[in-house]
Amino acid sequence: MSTYGPLLKTPGVGRVIAAQLTARFPFGMLSLAYLLHVEHVFHSYGAAGLVLATTSVGQALAGPLTSRWMGSWGMRPVLVLTSLVALVSMGVIAFVTMPLWAYVVVGFIGGLAVPPVQPAVRTIYPKMVTSSQLTPLFSLDASAQELIWVAGPVITTFVATQIGTVQAIVLAMVFLVVGGAWFVGSPELGRVRIPRSKRAFGVVLKRPSVVVATLTGLLLIGACAAVEASVTSVFGEGSPNAGIVLAVFAIGSLIGGLALGHRPISPNTLWTRMVIVFVGLALAVGGTNFWWLCFALVIAGAGIAPALAVMFGSVSATVKFSDAAEAYGWMGTGQLIGAAGGSAVAGFLIDGHGATGGLMVGAVAALIGVALPLVTKRWLPDLRGRDASPIPDTEPVNIPT
Predict the structure, then answer these.
(1) Max Cα separation, the chain?
(2) How much is the CA Rg of the chain, to the nearest whole Å?
(3) Which residues pair with 320 in a beta bridge?
(4) For residue 46, how many other CB atoms are within 10 A of its CB?
(5) What are φ and ψ of residue 115, in 5° steps?
(6) How far apart are CA 143 and CA 302, in angstroms?
(7) What span, in angstroms and rounded, lies between the C-alpha atoms of 326 and 146?
(8) Rounded distance, CA 229 to CA 221, Å?
(9) How far apart are the C-alpha atoms of 332 and 320, rounded to whole Å?
(10) What digits encode the pLDDT tens for the residues 121-152?
(11) pTM of the entire structure?
(12) What are phi and psi of 391, to 5 degrees?
């Protein structure tokens, strides 16, 4: 706390963290809310899964693009426009009865319009704190986002089952309006201007650190998605144990992020933190008893937020400020692909080999997530004693002669 206390006392930091978490909170609710609502309409989980898949595809496609737009049009116009479109799409799905293809189309549009809050906030963080505070801030942010994945599904399930699926989507809409307005109204968004990038769209992927962070994030989130599917299959829909185990998983990440957030980042930091995730998931393969899974997954969780913090810090320190938002957008796309792929592959193995097969998918993904940054560690920055802020954009200056 000696690290985080002064950090949270820095003007604006606590408020911006709270505002962006509130703005992103609906998207910790929406997948489950859509799943329950569309299933209620069509009485088919297959139909609901199709709507969710197209929503995720839209989000994956749009992430880098809308993030890049913030450098061309400004953060506030892009955030307001995307929030309005996302809000309308949520309202249509909640209140309009349509054929399945229409739900698919609206879901895809809503995915395209997910506001790029995460790239925006991680782009302005370096302008809010000193260089020594930036790495702990990335870690605090990665840890705090676990609150979205712990509370979001719990609130959604309660509202959808006790009141109604329409009301669950409406509640997500309320969070989007309140959180989006709070974040967009933050003075920091007016003080920070992302320069227009002079490089073509996608060129930032030529940065090796961005590729390593994107692929490692894909593997990490893919492993987490496989675990979620497996744990759900162990306990079934009627038991609260699945939710408890997954909450323990997220709490482990929160604790790990806070415990390791002040540690300096070296080229070896990412793979060593991924080792923590792998060890926990390898233990989970050994049994599906409630208490054993809690023990194994709290260990695995302890590496998640610390690993994400390293990825964000490594990208921040190796890209130009004008490219930072797009780089974070690509990282988000990688994580979405990992979530979809991890769930899909785990689902096939769960059908054939039970929950242990799905947990094995998570362990293998985490093992590859150890090997990748280990083999490519020469591409990752050494930030011990260095500033993790993005590389400044410079322009030629005409000097009178």
Answers:
(1) 79
(2) 21
(3) 391
(4) 10
(5) -60, 135
(6) 10
(7) 23
(8) 12
(9) 18
(10) 888 888 888 877 887 888 888 778 777 876 77
(11) 0.81
(12) -70, 130
